Amino acid sequence: MKAVSTEERVLLFKNPAGGGAYAQALLTVLCAPPHAIVKLTTYSSLWIPDDIFNSPKVLQDKTALLICVDAEFKEEKWWLKNFYPVREVEIKKSKVEGNYLTLWVEALGYIKCKDYGKYSRELEASLKPLPPAERSYIAFDTLRDLEIISVDDPSLTLTAWQNLAEMLAGLKVFDKVAFYTMTEIENTTDKKKVPFEKIDKTKPDLAYKLVGNKKYSLTISHLLPFHNQPGKIGRLELELSMPQNLKRDNDDTIEICGKQNSQNVGVKLKAISSTEYSTIKIQPKDPTFKHAPLLSIPVELSPATFWKRYWKRLILIIPTVVAVFFYAYAQLIQATKGYPALQTLFNKSPEAIGATLSAIILIIIPILISLIIMGKKED
């Protein structure tokens, strides 16, 4: 964990009860894999300080905290209950688009707060005027009594995500809402974890690097609806939109069920000829499902090295060539009664030896050729 400091942070407020777009944005940032870039488009000029809206570049490269605002609308007014700091992000880009400020943020560590009530009271006292509870808002404050969970520790990151999901699932606005995230990609062919790395030394973009002719496993952790209701089991169908060369064994739909669990999804990257950058997108199959994260996972698809791509076929081609040579040799000695080499070695009839070798090799050659063709189809 990072040490607690008093360094000022940008605060990005979101009230999920303010509308579907606000709930969607909050869930997507909460559930995005570490270092993934999320586009936020719900900051209206009505709810942003004029100096920020008029000069949005002041936000770029700033570290920010995403704050969930728990507020309830009654008696024609929004009533603030609590502030829940969710995740640290870095603002990579900001741009005014019409009456909205669009932000591109990099998802970093989750936030651990010991006392949300105390934090809310201190934050409310320090912000003058208090941000409007009904929409998005941008302000500034210190970390206070908060801890940022390092994204370098997958175990702590998963635990922090689970704790935050359970807490947010208790809010009225998130009742019967699905929480899910991708926590890991593993190369099951080589039994290695796939790190999140730079695509190119000259480019800042990050991605999971996947190599052709390999099988992978995506680990999806979830907390589904009915988590608080005894006897009820949450169930949700997710749709995986994947690059053309990345395929599942059956289809691109998976079903996750249970209250809280992790599930592995197997995929295979077929042979590709050149490096390409793409994404894996995960979202509910039913577009009418109420509030769920939309995950966009960047991947770099790279061809395997020449030797790794063709070594299986080379291993088969070499014995095939040898077998063809011996077949020709066997035919030669079968047709030549006085062939001295085999007469000396075996002291038997060259015709019989040639016929026997021809028959054996005629069986072996088609088998080798069929294996080579099968290997090519798999590639």
Core attributes:
379 residues; alpha+beta; Immunoglobulin-like; seven-stranded mixed beta sheet; six-stranded mixed beta sheet; elongated; disordered N terminus
Can you describe this structure?
The chain is an alpha+beta fold. 29% of the residues lie in helices and 37% in strands. It is built from seven helices and 18 strands. The strands form three sheets. Strands 1, 2, 3, 4, 5, 6 and 7 form a seven-stranded mixed sheet that branches. A six-stranded mixed sheet has the order 10-11-18-17-13-15, with no helix packed on it. A five-stranded antiparallel sheet has the order 9-8-12-16-14. The radius of gyration is 30 Å and the shape is elongated. The relative contact order is 0.12.
Our count of domains comes out at 3
Structural class, by secondary structure, is alpha+beta
Which percent bin holds the helix content?
Answer: 25-40%
- 3D shape: elongated
The average pLDDT value, as a whole number, equals: 80
- Tally of extended strands? 18
Q: Which consecutive residue ranges, at least 5 long each, have pLDDT under 50?
A: 1-5, 341-346
Distance between the termini: 44 Å
Strand content: 35-45%
| Helix and strand pattern | EHEHEEEHEEHEEEEEEEEEEEHHH
Oligomer: single chain
What is the radius of gyration computed over CA atoms, rounded to a whole number of angstroms? 30 Å
Main sheet attributes: strand count, strand direction, barrel closure = 7 strands, mixed
What is the count of helical runs?
7
